[in-house]
Amino acid sequence: MKNTFLIISFLLTATISKAQSDYQIIEKSLPYNKLATSFTTNIIGVGESLSIYNWQKFIEKHSGTTYVTSYGEGDIDLESKHVKFPLLKNQLVTIYSRFAPNNSETGVLLTIWIQKEDGTYYSSKTNPDSGKNIKQWLLLFHNELMDLNRTH
Q: 3-state DSSP call for residue 71?
């Protein structure tokens, strides 16, 4: 009985941890610029084409224009210019984004880098609040896409 309880507890904990990790935003320093940060979300159950289409619509809602800059081996790189970033006082930014299949091929990894008008990149190392705001904004897109996917 005790072993059964331990096994069920372990499986329940593992399931809850996995469910929570699907909605995390991973923040990493860029290798070529330690003061720049990338932010990545794992969008489960959604294909690249639907993700990219809705990303462009999301950017357009923030007055930006998106261009494809690179395409190869399943990775698609985009550049979005003149985006009004609402969580950073509507500052105009350029957002570089990459869409790639996730490791288990069950969805899409969306990674973004946000460049200010002066050419520097946002990072929670230089401004902790901006990192938190960027994560919230990216999570907003993630949740909108997941809601859209559930209704179709």
A: strand
